[in-house]
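[User]
Protein folding is very new to me. Any chance you could explain this protein sequence and its C-alpha cells? I have pasted everything here:
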Amino acid sequence: MSQYDVVIIGSGPGGYVAAIRCSQLGFNTALVEKYKSLGGTCLNVGCIPSKSLLDSSHHYEQLIDNFDHHGIEIDGKVKINLKKMILRKQSVVDQTVKGIDYLMKKNKISVYNGLGSLINSNEIKVQSANKVNTIKAKNIIIATGSKPSILPFIKLDKERIITSTEALELKEVPKKLVVIGGGVIGLELGQVYSRLGSKVSVVEFADRITPGMDKSLSRELTKIMKKQGVDFYFSHTVNKVQRKGDVVTISALDKNDSIVKFNADYCLVSVGRKPYTNGLNLSELGIITLPNGQIEVNDTFQTSIPNIYAIGDVIRGPMLAHKAEEEGVLVAEIISGQKPHINYNLIPNVIYTWPEVASVGKTEEELKSKGVKFKTGQFPMRALGRARASMDTDGFVKIIADSSTDEVLGVHMIGARVADLIAEAVTAMEFRASAEDIARISHSHPTYAEAIKEAALAATENRSLHM
C-alpha cells in the first residue's frame, strides 16, 4: 500500500494548487481525480472554456458592429462556424490540462485516476474502471468542488434543457434561448449566444441580476445587456419546464402571481452550484456536513476529523476558483506548521461579460445595513481618452471609503478590462490604503486604469480632474 504525507481528493484549482504547494513544502503528495483529465470544473467545463467562447463571440460581435467604424470594411458574407469555435475552445482546454499534467510531473506528485472514497481517517480507496487502489495518508484534503444546482421539478435532458456543461458543446446557435437565473454563469453564456444571433431571455427570481453585487453594478449591466438585445424578467418564479419535440416551454409566476410562459428551442438552467461530495463516505466517517451540503470546517479548515481538511466549493464562502486556490495554499502551509491567513473580504468577484464587471470589499447595501458612514467617488469610462479610442465607453469605477478615516472599504467597477483592473483595488485594500493614497499614485495615460485614480479623486473632496 502506497503511503503519502498528503493526499488531495479532487484536481480543480483548489486541489491541484494544494498539491503543488504541499510538494514545494517537502511533503510526499498524491492527487486523486475521478475523471481522466485534471483541472476540475474550472479548466474542463467552467472558467476556461466559457472564457474561450466569450472571446470568440466577442470578436464576431466586434466584426459585425464595430469594425466599420474603425475603417475596416469586409467584402463578402461574414458567417459563424460554431463547430470550429467549439473546437478552438476544446484546444484551449486541452492545452491548459496538459499544463496541469506537466506541473504534477515537475513537482513529483503521484496522480491516481478514479473515484476517491474515504475508508477511514488515513486510508482512501480509489476505484477506477480497471482496478482498485488503496492508499494511505497522514493528512487528507477534500477538494471535490461543485456541480450545477437543478430545480427539483426540472428534468434535464441535456439536449434542449441543459446546464452550463452542455451549453459549451452545442451543435447549433439557438434561435431562442431562455436562461433561468441571472447569475454569473447564465449572464456569460447568455451573452455568448446573444452575440451569435440567439434571442436571449433571462428569467430571474430576484428583483435584479447578480444580487450579491453592488446595486449600481447590477443596474448598469442590465442596462447595457438590454441595449445588446437581451431581455430580462425579474421577480419571476419558474414553476414548470417542459419539452415537446424541439420546443421547450417555461412557465413562471410574476410578482403579481400571473402566469407567464416562454417558448424557446433551448433552456439553460443556471440557478447556482452545489457542493459535490458523492462517494466520499462522509457520513460513514462522521464528518459533519451542513444542510446545504457543505462540509463543516473550523478556522484551520479541519473537518470533524482533525487530519482531514476541506477547501473550495465544498465549504463555506463564494464558489470561486481563486478562493479555492488560496485555501489550497493555506491548508498546505497549516499542515507544515506555518500560520497563514486569508482575508475573505478581499477576494475579488468578476463577471466576464463585455463589458466586464468586478468588485472587492463591501457594497453600499452592506455598509448601510451595518450603520457604517461612508462616502463614494464614481468616474465614468466614457470620460477616458483610452475608452473613446477603443469604443469601449460603457461603465464606471466606484470607490467607497470610510467617511472619517478615508480607508477604502469597497471598489466596484464595470467596463473594459476591469477583470484585470480590480487587482489594483485588492492590492490597495490589502495595505489598507485611503482613497487619497490611490488618488496620489501616478497612472499611465491613456489607460482604463485612470478611472480608478479619478474615482479616488472623486471620493477625496469630490475633486475628479476630468469630470
Remarks:
- The chain has a mean pLDDT of 97.
- Residues 51 and 352 are 7 Å apart (CA to CA).
- The chain has three domains: 3-148+274-342, 161-271, 346-459.
